[in-house]
Design brief:
- It is an enzyme of class 3 (hydrolase).
- Its EC number is 3.4.11.-.
- Belongs to the peptidase M18 family.
- This protein is α/β, with parallel strands linked by helices.
- It folds into two domains: 277 residues, 3-Layer(aba) Sandwich (Aminopeptidase), CATH 3.40.630; 129 residues, Aminopeptidase i, Domain 2, CATH 2.30.250.10.
- Helix content is 27%, strand content 28%.
- Helix 7 packs across helix 9.
- The longest helix is centred in the middle third of the chain and has 16 residues.
- The model has no long low-confidence stretch (mean pLDDT 96).
């Protein structure tokens, strides 16, 4: 298959971003390499026209802002989320059963549980320490080798395993970690891994937020490499494409990339889309560039547009009946406009028309998804951000299979399609 530098960057980003904290760290690194300056929310800011800046919150959400050389009159906004469904360790995770040290986990988000069995699991997240000098410090941890597994029960012992048996996450999904281990071994292992990765020899572990993840690397799949298979495509794929588009833009227009944490659990947090993070940043930016009062901020927001990017359900060849007959997005068929009359998606005819015109200009095919009328519909940060800010919004995404599985599948051509469309959106002079 032909070499594609963009897809290689995507696969590396997916591989190196097992948690939202790692994703934001990797996005921050690329932004700084491209000349973006990091801002600290606890400090005073100074901004000038033409600057490019970014800010993080909780180390798991990010807002990047590109300022125009002249007056800031509108923002071309791209939104995505950094979190994905999965298994996270409980605070007192150690369990000893039948001679094995196991990990107590809770399910984060609406995860498909069955694919987690019999996978080679690594562990990643962040750990907070007290150093010898009394200083508190948070560090990222990524144990990128198989250290745990959730073994299946043999079919000989469960003859109804293939008949839709429910999975109990409390009693049936505790991964095995160490044979003959004791409860205190978890802290010992964390200390060892912290030393290996950060050369931290003596520190008290105060707390952690750790997740398990599949160590199988992302890959191009198919005879011609038509597909991308990876964990966390929902929604790191959109984070990557949004970042690519921002960095590829001509830099002349006001633009924002927002990547929120906690979408998979409702977005209600200080750094989630339902929280104040994006509004806080934009109000400060508006004030520092001469905007006077709430009226000028509302004028800015109403002149702006937000494209909320979150993957869409592709037509599955084995389950075609799960789609409305007129709305089955194809893999590698171009970006998907997501519509829902009950506002589970924020798209309306005006924002959809703008995006269709953007795609026309970029030479990109475009598709539409509406869920079946007899099925429930998911949602995104789009309606939430639109509600919080009042910004005109639409929802789009790349079509994928296996959403919320431990390994998801999308089309390799769609990465370039959506990147071209979003780049054209960021470069667009008129947002109508």
């Amino acid at each position: 298959m032909p070499h594609d530098p963009t897809l290689e960057r995507l696969l590396s980003f997916l591989h190196d971003s097992p948690t939202p904290w790692h994703a934001v760290a990797n996005m921050s690194k690329r932004l700084e390499q491209a000349g973006f300056r990091r801002l600290d929310e606890t400090q005073s800011w100074k901004l000038a026209p033409g600057e490019r800046v970014y800010v993080t919150r909780n180390d798991s959400s990010l807002v990047a802002v590109q300022l125009p050389d002249d007056r800031l009159q509108a923002l071309r906004m791209i939104g995505a989320h950094t979190d994905s469904p999965g298994l996270r360790l409980k605070p007192n995770a150690a369990q000893v059963n039948s001679g094995w040290l196991q990990l107590g986990v809770e399910v984060y988000g609406g995860s498909l549980l069955a694919p987690w069995f019999d996978r080679d699991l690594g562990m990643a997240g962040r750990v907070h320490l007290r150093r010898e000098d009394g200083r508190l410090q948070g560090v990222l941890l990524n144990v990128a080798r198989p250290v745990a597994i959730v073994p299946s029960l043999a079919i000989h012992l469960d003859r109804e395993a293939n008949d839709g048996r429910a999975i109990n996450p409390q009693t049936q999904m505790a991964p095995v970690l160490l044979q003959g281990g004791e409860k205190g071994d978890i802290e010992r292992l964390l200390q060892r891994w912290l030393y290996e990765q950060h050369n931290i020899e003596k520190a008290d572990i105060l707390d952690f937020e750790l997740a398990l993840y599949d160590t199988q690397p992302p890959a191009r799949v198919g005879v011609e490499g038509e597909l991308i298979a990876s964990a966390r495509l929902d929604n790191l794929l959109s984070c990557f494409v949004g970042l690519e588009a921002l960095l590829a833009s001509d830099g002349r227009q006001g633009a924002v990339l927002v990547a929120n944490d906690h979408e998979e659990v409702g977005s209600a947090s200080a750094c989630g889309a339902q929280g104040p993070f994006l509004g806080d940043v934009l109000r400060r930016v508006n004030a520092l560039l001469g905007g006077e009062g709430e009226e000028s901020f509302i004028r800015l927001i109403q002149a702006s547009r937000l494209i909320s990017c979150d993957n869409a359900h592709a037509l599955h060849p084995n389950f075609a009946d799960k789609h409305d007959a007129g709305h089955g997005p194809a893999i590698n068929g171009g970006p998907v406009i997501k519509v829902n009359a009950n506002q589970r998606y924020a798209t309306n005819s005006a924002t959809s028309a703008m995006f269709r015109d953007v795609c026309r200009e970029a030479g990109v095919p475009v598709q539409t998804f509406v869920t079946r009328a007899d099925m429930a519909c998911g949602s995104t940060i789009g309606p939430i951000t639109a509600t919080e800010l009042g910004v005109p919004t639409l929802d789009v995404g790349i079509a994928q299979w296996g959403m919320h599985s431990i390994r998801e599948t999308a089309g390799s051509q769609d990465v370039a399609y959506l990147t071209r469309a979003l780049t054209a959106f960021v470069n667009r002079t008129e947002l109508v």
